[in-house]
Design brief:
This protein has 145 residues and is mostly helical. It has a domain at 34-111. It has helices at 2-8, 14-17, 36-142; strands spanning 22-23, 29-30. A two-stranded antiparallel ribbon has the order 1-2. A hairpin with a 5-residue loop joins strand 1 and strand 2. The N and C termini lie far apart (135 Å). It comes from Camellia sinensis. Pfam families: BORCS6 (PF10157). Residues 1-23 are annotated as: Disordered. InterPro entries: BORCS6_C.
Length: 145
């Protein structure tokens, strides 16, 4: 990491930042508004700030990468859970449909058996009427003195 910083940093030499220095009539050199030391100091501050900003961005992107990995992992877990729940729901729905079909078939069989009971009920009513008639006849015969 340090070697990357060293290669990415731009080194500033004194020759690059030398300002034009003028000479007055007496032969005394004069500097422009900022002297070389001030310029070098400002450049060092800017360079330090740039490195700090680059480190901050590196840290930010690492945090974002970690958060994205966690979210993706959580999403995969949720999709697996959803898939399991959907599978169980499908199994339960098939089981309920099978039981419902058995119930319907049982009701249809019972309905057919009850239809046969209608004729049996009619026969029982006729038989009951005949038994009542026979009972009345027996009672009349027994009352004869």
């Amino acid at each position: 990491m340090e070697s990357e910083k060293a290669t990415n940093e731009t080194l500033v030499s004194e020759e690059d930042v030398e300002e034009e220095v003028g000479v007055d009539e007496i032969g005394v050199s004069k500097s422009t508004s900022l002297d070389q030391k001030e310029i070098l100091r400002v450049l060092e501050v800017v360079e330090r700030d740039s490195v700090a900003i680059a480190d901050s961005f590196t840290s930010l992107f690492a945090s974002l990468r970690l958060a994205l990995a966690e979210v993706t992992s959580t999403s995969v877990d949720h999709m697996q859970c959803f898939s399991d729940a959907a599978g169980r729901l499908q199994e339960c729905a098939l089981d309920a449909a099978t039981k419902g079909n058995h119930y319907i078939n049982s009701c249809l069989r019972l309905n057919e058996e009850i239809k046969g009971m209608d004729s049996l009920a009619t026969q029982l009513k006729i038989l009951r009427k005949n038994v009542d008639t026979l009972d009345s006849a027996v009672n009349r015969l027994l009352r004869l003195p």
